[in-house]
Amino acid sequence: MKKIYIIAIAAATGIGMLAGGCSKDFLTNDPTSILTTDQVFGSKELAFSALADLYKGYVDQQTITNWVEFTNFDEAFPSEAGNYWRAQQTDFPYDWWNLWNYDYIRNINIYIARCSGATALDDADKQRFVAEARFLRAADYFEMAKRMGGVPIVTEAKTYDYNGDPSYLQQPRNKEAEVYDFVLAELDTVMQYLPDDATVQDRATKGLCLAMQSRAALYAASIAKYGVNTPGVTLPGGEIGIPASQADKYYQISRNASLALVKSGKYSLYMKKPDDLADNFASLFYDKSNNPEVIFAQNFKLKSGTVEGWTLNNQPRAIAEEAQGGRINPTLNLALKYETLDNKYTPFKVQSGAGYAYYDKESDIFNNRDARLAGTFILPGSQFKGKDVDIWAGYYVPASGKIITSTTFGGQAQLPGRDYKEQVVGFSGPIDGLEFSAQTGFYVRKFMDPATGSGQIGTQSEVWWVRYRYGEVLLNLAEAEFELGKKDSAAIFINQIRRRAGFTKDLTPTEITFDRIVHERRVELAFEGHELFDNKRWRIADKVWNGQKITAAELEAGVGKATAPNTMAYGLWPYKVYDPGATNDGKWIYKIVKPDEVTAAHRFQLGNYYSTINQDIISNNPKIVKNPNQ
Amino acid sequence: MKKYSFLNYLSLLLLLGFMGSISSCQKDNYDAPKTKFTGHLVYKGTPIQIKNNGLDVNKEGFSAVYFELWQDGFGKSAPIDVYLNQDGSFSALLFNGEYKLIIPPGQGPFLSIANTETGSDTIPLSLNGNKEMDIEVLPYYMVDKADFTVGTDSVVSAAASVSKIITDNRAKDIEYVGLYVNRTSFVDEDNNIAFKTIQGADIADLSNITLSAKIPKDISGGNIGIADQNYFFARVGVKIAGVDDMIFSDIVKVELK
Hints:
The complex is a heterodimer.
Chain A: H1 2-22, H2 37-40, H3 44-56, E1 76-78, H4 102-117, H5 123-148, H6 176-190, H7 206-226, H8 247-264, H9 277-286, E2 294-298, H10 310-314, E3 328-330, H11 332-335, E4 351-352, E5 355-356, H12 371-376, E6 377-378, E7 383-384, E8 387-388, E9 395-397, E10 402-404, E11 412-414, E12 421-423, E13 443-444, E14 465-469, H13 470-483, H14 487-500, H15 514-524, H16 531-537, H17 541-544, H18 552-558, E15 571-577, E16 588-593, H19 615-620
Parallel strand pairs in A: 9-15
Antiparallel strand pairs in A: 1-3, 2-14, 4-5, 6-13, 7-8, 9-10, 11-12, 15-16
Helix pairs in contact in A: 3-4, 3-5, 4-5, 5-6, 5-7, 6-7, 7-8, 7-13, 8-13, 13-14, 13-15
Chain B: H1 2-25, E1 35-43, E2 46-47, E3 66-70, E4 80-83, E5 89-94, E6 97-102, E7 110-112, E8 123-127, E9 131-132, E10 135-139, E11 141-150, E12 155-164, E13 174-182, E14 194-199, E15 209-214, E16 231-240, E17 247-248, E18 252-255
Parallel strand pairs in B: 1-9, 1-10
Antiparallel strand pairs in B: 1-2, 1-5, 3-4, 3-6, 6-8, 7-10, 11-12, 12-15, 13-14, 13-16, 16-17, 16-18
C-alpha cells in the first residue's frame, strides 16, 4: 500500500515540475516581493502606505520609545545598571544629537516627484499626499537646523550621471536663517492643502503647520536675540547664527502663527477631570478619545506590532507586571520647580528647627503644590493603577537616630523591641545603586498607561507620543508676546496654563520675566523633549550645565533662575518613623540625597551647541564647513 | 588506544596549521609608524598648562585640547588627532611624510598664530626622522605664579598672579579663577577632591588672587583624604568667558605638616 502512494506522489511531482518548466512567461513574471512605482502610485491605498513609511521616518530626540535619552540632563536619573554612566560622564560628546539624514530627504523628494506625476490618483488625494510629504520634509529640515545649524536645502532627488566628476552634486550649507525661512515658507504653502480638522491627530493638518511655525519661528527668533550671549557660536558664512536684527521679525511670525491657531478655536486645553487636576494633567497624555489638546502625535496600536514600552520600562517596581520597570527616576531638581499654590518657589521642608519635619501621611510633603507635580511624577505615597507604589527608604528610629533598612526590594529586618522580622523598605525602593528602584524617590507618570497589561512585554501600550499640543502653543505665544514687549498679553496666555495646574492667583504682567517663561516651560513640558533644544536656543545650556558640582542648597537657591546650574541629580527619600509610644510614631520624615551613582557634574561645551558633522560627509563634499568650537 | 593516537596526530596537524597561520600574519604590508613627533604648546617658551587628556580609556582625550594633522593624497581625508598632556606636551608616532598641522578654532585657552609660511593657521610639517617642535600660541591669560601653603586644619591656600595676554578687541573676560586640589598629580576642574572658585567680577587685582580650600578628612568610603595621605597636588586655573578649556598653573605637590 505504502509503495503505491510513494509512486503516486513521485509521478505527481514529476508532472508538476514539467508543467512549471513549460510556463511560457517564466522570464517575464512580475516580482512578488517588490511593488513597482506604477503599482504604488496606481492606487490610493498603496500611495498612502508609502506615505505612512515617510511618517515613520519623523525624527525625535527624546521620545517615549527611547527612554534613556531623558536621563542625560538631570531632569531624570537612569535607574538601570547599564546606563549609570550617564550620571558619571562630565562632557557631552560633540557628535551627540547629530543628524544628517539626507537618505530620508531623498526618499521624500522622490515621493513628491512621483506622487505629483501620478495619473491614476484623484487630484484631492494627490494634493493632500504631496502636502503631507512636503510637511514631513519641512519638519526634518527643522530638526536638522535645531541640531546642526544651516544645512544644504535639497528639494529634488539628484542623480549621478557617471561622468567621473560628482562635484555638481555637492551643495554648500545654507545659512541657518535660510533653513528656518524655508521651513516657515513650506508650512505656509502646504497648510492650504491640508485638512483643517482637529480630530486628525496623527497626520499633518493645518493646525499642525501653524503649531510648527509657532515653534520654529520662536527658535529662530531666540537664536537671533540670545546669540549675543555666546559670540563664539557663529560661523562667518551665517551657517551658524542669525543676525540680532531679525529677532523681532521671527517673534512676530511665531506670534501670528500661534494666534491664528488660538483664534481658530479648534483646539483647547484638556480639562475632562476638573475635580482632580493632577489626574487631569496625566490623562492629557494617554487619553486618545476626543482629546482637544493634542495637535500631532505618533500613534500606536495594540496587537498591531506597533506598540511602545514606556510603561513597561518605567512602571513602579512594586506593582510591575514584569520583573523590571522603574528606569526613569525624575529628580528632586525638577520636583523643586513645581511651585506652591501661592505662586512661590518653596523648597520641600525636610527640617524643622534642628530636627526633622514630621508628616502625618507620606504624601503630605507634596500638598498644596502645582498639580502638574503629581501629574508628571509618581510620588511616594501615591497610587498607580489603583495600587500603592510603595516607595519608602526605611525606618527612622529617633531614639537611636538610626536608619533600619534593607538592600532588597521589600526586604525585611527586625526593629528594636520586636521579636520578628518585617518589611523595612518599599518594594519600589529607594535603594541606592539597585536598578529599577526609585533611586531619587520618584518615578515618572507622564505618558504612563494605566491600562492593565501595559507593563507586560507581550502586550505593552498604545499610548501615543505627543509631539505638538495646544499647551505648548500657548507658551510659545506667551514667550513671543513677552519678547515683543507685550507683557499684558503674555500674562493672559501663561495664566491659562497655570489655572489648569490649579493656581487661583494669576501672575501679573510685571511678574512675567524671562526666568518665568523658562520656568513655566520646564514644568509644563517636562519629558516632552524640549529641555535640550530650549536651553540651546536661549543660549543658556553652557550655563545650566557648567560642569561645576552643586549642593542641594545651591539647587534650592537656583529654582526659578533660568541660568542656575543644574548639573547633578538629587533625590528625596521618605522614611517611616518608628518610635513606639511617642507622638511621632508612624509619621514620615524626608531626607535629601544624591544617589551614589551620580558622580560627575554635566558640562555642555560651546562645541555642543551644534553637533559634529562627520568627517566622511565633509570628505564627500568639501564645500561643507565644520561647526564651531569642536 | 589506536583511536587516541589518531586523534593526537590530528591535533598535532591542527596545531601545525594554526602556527602556520600565525606566522603568515607576521608579514604585513607596512611597518608600524615609528617616527616620533614630540614637543610642547608654548607661549614665549613657557608651556601652556591645560587639563589632562582624560583618564578614562573609553573616552581617551575626551574634552581635552588637541590639534589635527592632515595628510594629502590618501583618498578621503580625515585628521589624526593629537591630544595634549596637562603640561602642554604632546607626542605622536607617525610615518615620515608631509603633514599639515592645524589647531582647530575654539580649541584650548588660546588663539593660534598665523604661520608665516602659509599665511594662515596651517603649519606645514615635514617629518623625516624624529622631530621635536614647540608650537607657539597666543593665550588669553597666563598664570604667572601660584604659590601654595598648607595651613592648620588641612586648608590649602593659594596666592596666584594672572596676566592678561590678549588685550585688543579679541580679549575676553575671566569667568572665574579656581583652586583645585587632588590626591594624585592629575588635577583640573573635573579631577579634584577640593576646590574653591572666585568669580571674575570679584577679583580686584589680577596679580594678587588668593583662594583657599579645605581638604576633606575622609571621602569615597574612607579611601581618600588627610586620614590616608599626607601629600596632595594643587594648581590654579582660569576659566575664560566664552572659552571651554581652562588655563592652569604648574602642578605643585603640597605636604601636610
